[in-house]
Amino acid sequence: SVAFLSIVMLSLTTSNNSYASRGIFQTPIFAQDECTRLIKAALQTASRNAASLTDVEKRQGRDKGILEGWHSSRHNKYPTTDLSVIDDAFTMEDRLLVEEKLNDRLVPIVERLYGVVPKALHCSDVSLFSFFFGCVC
After folding, report:
1. Distance between CA 46 and CA 84 in Å, rounded?
2. What pLDDT does 22 receive?
3. Is pLDDT at 41 greater than 90 in this prediction?
4. Which of 44, 48, 60, 102 could join 123 in a cystine, given CB atoms 3.0 to 4.6 angstroms apart?
5. pTM of the predicted model, to two decimals?
6. How far apart, in whole angstroms, are the C-alpha atoms of residue 39 and residue 35?
7. Strands 127-129 and 82-84
8. How far apart, in whole angstroms, are the C-alpha atoms of residue 94 and residue 38?
């Protein structure tokens, strides 16, 4: 909340904003083997989550088309199918991988684009999203 407000304020006032806010930037954050590992970790986490659901919860999820073990109600206005790296049953090793890679690779780019003081940002709430587009995988 306060950190978000600070980032918004910086974005609105920094001289870099005239460029950064009008562009779409692509940069590789995770290598192919890291992506494969995170997909596997997400599927294992969803499986662990599903194991703790009651039969009624499983049926309700299936009726809504929700992948078993994934969440779909975190965001009211923008529904997603996701897993929280922080709140769900990811291993500590997987959490550290995500945190380390984002902080080492993504944060410096955001700092440069928006003129944020180095080491002022870090990733603390991360989710992985599922995009299956109706296929059964």
Report:
1. 10
2. 62
3. yes
4. 102
5. 0.69
6. 6
7. antiparallel
8. 7
CB atoms within 10 A of CB 33: 8
3-state percent breakdown (helix, strand, coil) of the chain, nearest 5: 50, 5, 45
DSSP 43-90: HHHHHHHHHTS-HHHHHHHHHTTPPTT-B--S-SSS---EEETTTS--
Tallying the residues shown for the chain, one arrives at: 137
Rg (CA), the chain: 18
SS3 state of residue 122: coil
Q: Measure the CA–CA gap between 46 and 41, rounded to whole angstroms.
A: 9
Residue range 6-27, pLDDT digits in tens? 444 444 555 555 555 566 677 7
Helix (H) or strand (E) holding 129: strand 127-129
Structure tokens at 67: 């992948």
Predicted confidence (pLDDT) per residue in 48-98, tens digit: 888 888 888 888 877 777 778 888 877 777 778 888 888 888 999 999 998
* Alpha carbon distance 46, 108 (integer Å): 31
Which residue's entry shows tokens 């992948």?
A: 67
d(CA 46, CA 137): 13
